[in-house]
Automatic annotation (TrEMBL):
Residue ranges of every copy of the Quinolinate phosphoribosyl transferase C-terminal domain listed in the record: 113-280
Function, in words: Involved in the catabolism of quinolinic acid (QA).
SUPFAM superfamilies given in the database record: Nicotinate/Quinolinate PRTase C-terminal domain-like, Nicotinate/Quinolinate PRTase N-terminal domain-like
E.C. no: 2.4.2.19
Reactions catalysed, as given in the entry: nicotinate beta-D-ribonucleotide + CO2 + diphosphate = quinolinate + 5-phospho-alpha-D-ribose 1-diphosphate + 2 H(+)
Subunit note: Hexamer formed by 3 homodimers.
Protein name: Probable nicotinate-nucleotide pyrophosphorylase [carboxylating]
Family in the record: Belongs to the NadC/ModD family.
Alphabetized UniProt keyword annotations: Glycosyltransferase, Pyridine nucleotide biosynthesis, Transferase
Residues covered by the Quinolinate phosphoribosyl transferase N-terminal domain: 26-111
Amino acid sequence: MSMPHALIVDPLLEGFLREDLGRAGDITTDAIAPDGLTARCAFTFRQAGVVCGLELARRVFALVDPTVQVTLHAKDGDTIAAGTVVAEVSGPARGILTGERVALNLMGRLSGIATLTRHCVDQAAPHGTRIACTRKTTPGLRILEKWAVRVGGGTNHRFGLDDGVLIKDNHIGVAGSITEAVRRVRDRLGHMVKVEVEVDTLEQLAELLALETGADAVLLDNMPPPVLRQAVAMVAGRLTTEASGGITPDNVNEVAATGVDLISLGFLTHSAKTLDVGLDFTSL
């Protein structure tokens, strides 16, 4: 799973590096590491998991110092054991020391998301249910976190407010009903935009299903598994069904067994634990 295009990624990485460098640059490294000193070091996963962020790390070092070389021993999406060396970095010690924290932060964070996603995907797979993320992402990291979900085998929900319609309970409250909310959206949108409607009850679902021109998908919000089964039966394949709300890695399998097409979990991005990844010098 290749990372997002460099035109998208590089401005993010440059911002992260500028945040770390501040106004005066890396004053510790500049004082301690002589100009011209070269080094070799290794990225080691101290925990087992799914690797995500190796290509990003390569880009980080390239932005700091293009002469730093990164040799990969794994690829994004690989499942590795604790203690595995996934890459070696060699070149000017100053560039390596300056870029290491940004590279490690990203790799640990994204690998944690990919690992958690893979677990949920495996839980849902026997039922043919796909796992999706949500917009509950870390500000500034959405593109990368959603990429990590794909690396872990999941799929992406909408990236923002502009690439898909999701009519939620507050929208319905403003419009007065599901019927009116859908009508206003359909009157405004082009034919390429998908529409999803969130429902909390089977009565709301029945109203949605009765529309001649309705939605493409329905989000079944905070419904317990017995109600989800009824909802899936009511839809009978006419809409894509998505379960969301209160779902964690512990109950993914139970929810998937209800027959929904998708399960979306904010948990993937707002509660994933960062994996412990180290960068250790092996020679100077």
